[in-house]
Design goal:
Helix content: over 70%
CATH class: Mainly Alpha
Shape: globular
Number of strands: 2
Strand content: under 5%
Distance between the termini: 7 Å
Order of helices and strands: HEEHHHHHHHHHHHHHHHH
Radius of gyration: 21 Å
CATH topology: Growth Hormone, Chain: A
CATH architecture: Up-down Bundle
Largest sheet: 2 strands, antiparallel
Number of domains: 1
CATH superfamily: MFS general substrate transporter like domains
Strand order of the largest sheet: 1-2
């Protein structure tokens, strides 16, 4: 079957109103999700410990386990989800997460710990459900980039709101996550309402990007068998990116304090803005690449160079040749660009290039499941195997290791898909 980008297709002028509405809907919804997931990390929970672990560390691990399990559940639920059931699913998942925060608040320590697990259990499926409204369109990269930019700024934003509730309004630490969710609830309702107004992909979208359909178990297995090595290399890259992102995100307060910026909490937000802007511009420009083949392989090139940039910038920082603030920004950019590219265009163009009727929800759930499992394991290793190593030192070593792994696996994936493409040339040419 011919590559759609080589066909004589008259591309209609992009509907600016549609783009603005769809992008805003996805951005608002996913940003609001963070208000139900991350605010508790703004608290310190001083004086609380359990089983020899700091309570905050234990909360992060517990929620992460729930979030990880959610990704594995999502491999089936999200991949098989029909378009007409997305809104209902979103309401159920977010409602469950918020109610869990309520029981976390009213249940005395330490018996409230299971409720932070239950809070994470539904939230891991939110990305796949929301992105289902955006995938399979000629403007998917742009829409996905806007949506993905939300989790660059949202974590800092909701933690800032959490700190405000604690310091200014004197909300108790255990109640603060629930109250933060309440603050963002109107925004969440607005986002879901806007998502419900997004029209389905039209025939032109289907021609350019391949129709997206639910995938049953047998269809998922066929897909895995065909692309197994490429899936493995891609997932290994994503595992590294997820580990690095989670460390940078969950312990941002500790990193900035260790680097000498404890009196500048505004860095939690302002350091992320240039990253979000740069990533958004680069990813959005990918919509201009109509050729799915070129767009797909550009992802491997981006990942390779970002891996090298992460390694080089970390060595410069260690050598005191790079300012700490600049290093945090460069490291964040090196991680977020390929991380968001995977979310927004890598799987999108993979499906489109190989003309495979499937959906991103399945692929993204697989990657996320492995990624958050890796993040959980690393967090446990850090706390139990290397408890005396500071988070900053652990972070720097991880940056070098992950950067090198990104570069190596990006090359491996590139050559696998090239060989697969050559073997399947009659179908793709």
């Amino acid at each position: 079957m011919p590559e759609p980008s080589t066909l004589n297709i008259s591309i209609k002028k992009i509907d600016v109103r549609f783009l603005m509405n769809a992008a805003a809907a996805a951005f608002i919804t996913y940003l609001s999700m963070y208000a139900f997931r991350k605010p508790f990390t703004a608290a310190t929970y001083d004086g609380l410990s359990l089983w020899g672990l700091d309570y905050k560390i234990l909360l992060i691990i517990t929620q992460l386990i729930g979030y990880t399990i959610s990704k594995y559940v999502g491999i089936k639920l999200v991949s098989e989800l029909h378009a007409g059931n997305r809104i209902r699913m979103l309401i159920m998942l977010m409602g469950f997460a918020w109610v869990s925060l309520f029981f976390f608040a009213i249940t005395p320590f330490p018996y409230n710990l299971p409720f932070i697990f239950l809070n994470g259990l539904p939230l891991g499926m939110i990305w796949g459900v929301v992105f289902g409204f955006l995938e399979g369109r000629k403007s998917t990269e742009l829409l996905g980039a806007v949506m993905a930019s939300s989790f660059i700024v949202s974590s800092g934003l909701v933690k800032g709101v959490g700190k405000l509730l604690l310091d200014r309004f004197h909300v108790p630490e255990l109640w603060m996550p629930f109250v933060a969710g309440l603050v963002f609830l109107p925004l969440l309702v607005l986002g879901i309402w806007m998502l419900n107004k997004i029209p389905a992909p039209d025939e032109e979208d289907k021609s350019l990007r391949t129709e997206r359909v639910p995938m049953k178990s047998a269809e998922r297995m066929v897909f895995i068998k065909r692309f197994a090595p490429g899936i493995l290399f891609s997932i290994l890259i994503y595992v590294g990116l997820t580990i690095f992102r989670d460390m940078r995100d969950n312990f941002a307060v500790e990193f900035w304090s260790a680097l000498g910026y404890s009196t500048m909490p505004e860095l939690l937000v302002f350091s992320e803005i240039p990253i979000a802007v740069a990533v958004l511009i680069i990813i959005s420009c990918m919509i201009l690449i109509r050729n799915n083949k070129i767009a797909f392989y550009s992802n491997h090139i981006i990942t390779f160079f970002c891996g090298l940039l992460l390694v080089v910038s970390t060595f410069l920082f260690i050598s005191k040749l790079m300012d700490p603030v600049l290093w945090m920004i460069v490291a964040g950019f090196s991680m977020y660009l390929p991380y968001i590219a995977i979310h927004t265009m890598y799987f999108e163009r993979w499906i489109a290039h190989f003309r495979y009727k499937s959906n991103i929800g399945f692929m993204m759930s697989m990657a996320d499941a492995a990624g958050y499992l890796g993040s959980t394991i690393i967090l446990l290793v850090k706390n139990f195997a290397t408890p005396t190593v500071s988070w900053v030192d652990f972070f720097m070593v991880s940056a070098i290791v992950i950067g090198l792994a990104m570069a190596v696996f990006a090359i491996a994936a590139f050559f696998f898909f090239k060989r697969l493409e050559m073997n399947a040339q009659p179908q793709l040419a």
